[in-house]
Structure formats: structure tokens, C-alpha cells
Amino acid sequence: MSDLLSSKNGEYFLTLAIESSCDETSAAVLKNGRQVLSNIISSQIDVHKKFGGVVPEVASRKHVENIDIVIEKALEEAGVTLKDIDHIGVTYGPGLVGALLVGVSTAKAMAYALNIPLVGVNHIEGHICANYIEHKELEPPFLCLIVSGGHTHLVHVKNYGNYDILGRTRDDAVGEAFDKVARAMGLGYPGGPIIDRLAKNGDAEAIEFPRVYLEPESFDFSFSGLKSAVLNYLNSQRQKGLEIKEEDVAASFQAAVVEVLVHKAIKAAKLKNLNTIVLAGGVAANSGLRESLYKEAKKEGIYLKHPSIKLCTDNAAMIGCAAYYNYMNGFISDLYLNAIPNLKLGERKL
Questions:
Q1: 14-129+312-328 and 140-310 share one fold
Q2: What phi, psi does 167 have (nearest 5°)?
Q3: pLDDT band at 9 (very low <50, low <70, confident <90, very high)
Q4: Fold of the CATH domain 14-129+312-328
Q5: How many separate helices (H) and strands (E) can be counted in the chain?
Q6: What stretch or stretches form a coiled coil here (predicted)?
Q7: What is the pTM of this model?
């Protein structure tokens, strides 16, 4: 391990990380995997708002425009140069293939030019590792609930880079359901933060939306039925000329989502005898989910940890942390690394 972790800097190891899986272009510099020296994020939310969602071709072009700029800013803010960097980590899946290719191509070119190791990172793994940055004391094993626009997973994190997927969504990811419901209500994009804000002023028991638990022993999720129930309610109210109280719809929908997520997370943690649950992904910023999971976890003597809001969103710092631990475990990519848009957690196609 000491040979593997030989560093240009002697006492510490510097990672340059790149993230471009969707609509954030990000670069970060980390020291020894967990200390963030810089984390620059260029968001495209304002660009995609008018389309009501991310347009892949537009996202790719914006990544091309932004990537050199964010890398330069990350190095400058960290107070280092490319000559100081020990290895480069980059997201190579899952995500939008065109967006991923911008980051992967840039990372490969830099690794070749600098003659330093390249480490491909699974984007979902990056979300898990955001908690290592936020909570320096956190060590495996623990249960992780990953909730984002594209993913919903319950994962037993056995060790660094060692994952047992207990459950995943069978249809819509939870963040996708939030966005689709918000679009149907005409609330704008991204929908998750808007619904969370409205829900705080609504009655969560005003409308009875279904809770989908699937088979008794299953840790999988399904949100398409709930999403359809909300859309049917909205259409019915409009056809009848009845009032739609957005706050109550938001609160009732969010409560139905949160109840299932919390129930399955607590159940999985108890089954695996784990005393820590961590949240990861963009929907980990949802206040209703945080509050409910904290309350129920406390009843069971389970600790809840989650990243700060900035680390919930797509960012390169989490990718850098994952790259560091992948490197420690000997997972180094070659220059044939390619973007894999449907990459699964635990798969390593380096």
C-alpha cells in the first residue's frame, strides 16, 4: 500500500476530481481523500429551466464550455498546480453519455500528459462518499439510503468500495417522481426543492395518496403508482373545477414518499444490525425526509448522518473522495476508460 500511495508531496496525497454526469460541471482538489481544498461547481439549472428538465445535448455543450474554467478555478482555490497532483478521479457512469464523455476525455488527456494515475468513479459511489467528507469520523459498515433524480438505492456499505445492494427502484427514481409531480402542478424545475418548500405549509393528511411497499420482504421501491395517483388527483380536480391547494398536494405527496423510504431504511438497518444510516444524493437535502428519518432512527437507537446541502448535489469533491479510496484498493483505470451511462453500483469496468 505504501508503494501505491507514493505521493509527490511526501506527507499528503492530492486528488484532482472531475464530475460531469448530468448538468453540473465540477472540479475539486482533495488532500488525503477527505479534506476538500476546493470544490467548484458550475450549475446549468437556469439553462435547463425553460425546457422543464435537462436537455442532454445542451448539457454536453455547456460542459465543453465550462470544464477548463472550473478545473483552473479548482486548482487556484486549492493553491496548487497540476504538477502537485498525484492522481485524477473522474465520473464515468452512470449519467448522460455525452456529458460523461466530456469529463472522461478531459481526465484521460490530463492523466496522459501529466503521467499520473487515472481512476474512474461510479457516480452513485461518489454520493455515498460525500458522507466521508462531511463526517470525518464515519467508517464502514453502515446503511446508505441513496435518493436522487436518477437513483433510489438501499445499500449495505460493508467497507470502502464494498457494497451490497439491498433494494432499488423498479421504475421512477424518487427525485424523478418529485420533478414529474412538480411539472404537472406547473411549479417549475427542479421540482424537489419547490415541493419541499410548499409541503412545510401544507396538510400532509389532506389527500390520501398510496404507499407502495411491494412484497413483505422486499427492500425495492416503486414510485410510478404514487406519481400516477397524484396526476389523477390533479386532473380530477381540474375537470370538476375544484380548487387545488398546492401546499396540501405537496405535503401529502411528500409524506407518502418519505413514509416508505423511512420504513424500509429502518427495517434494513435493523435486519443487518447496523447502528448508522447515512443519506446520499440530491433528495437527501429534503427537509421532510431528514426530519422523519432522524425521528424514527432515534427511536431505534440508530444514528443518522447526511451531507451538507452542497455535498448532496452533484459535485467533484465526492468523486475525489471515492477516487482516493478506489486508488487505495488498487482500482486504477487505463486510458481506454470509456463513459458507461448505465453503470451499476459495484461494477468496475476500468
A1: yes
A2: -160, 160
A3: confident
A4: Nucleotidyltransferase; domain 5 (3.30.420)
A5: 11, 10
A6: none
A7: 0.92
Q: Please give the Cα distance from 75 to 16 (Å, whole number).
A: 8
- How does pLDDT run across 48-97, given as a tens digit for each residue? 777 777 777 788 898 899 999 999 999 999 999 999 999 999 999 999 99
Assess contact for 249 and 202: CB atoms under 8 A: yes
Residue 74 C-alpha cell reads as 479548482
| Feature table: binding site for Fe cation | 123, 127, 314
pLDDT tens readout for residues 115-130: 999 999 999 999 999 9
CA distances, 107 to each of 16, 98, 210 (Å): 9, 15, 45
Name the fold adopted by 140-310.
Nucleotidyltransferase; domain 5 (3.30.420)
- Rounded to an integer, the average pLDDT of 178-195 is 91
Domain-wise residue ranges, the chain:
14-129+312-328, 140-310
- Residue ranges for the known binding site are 123, 127, 146-150, 179, 192, 196, 286, 314
307/316 Cα distance (integer angstroms): 14
**Which residues fall within 8 angstroms of residue 233, CB to CB, at 6 or more apart?**
207, 209, 249
How do residues 51-61 score in pLDDT, each as one tens digit? 777 777 788 89
Mean pLDDT of 294-323: 96
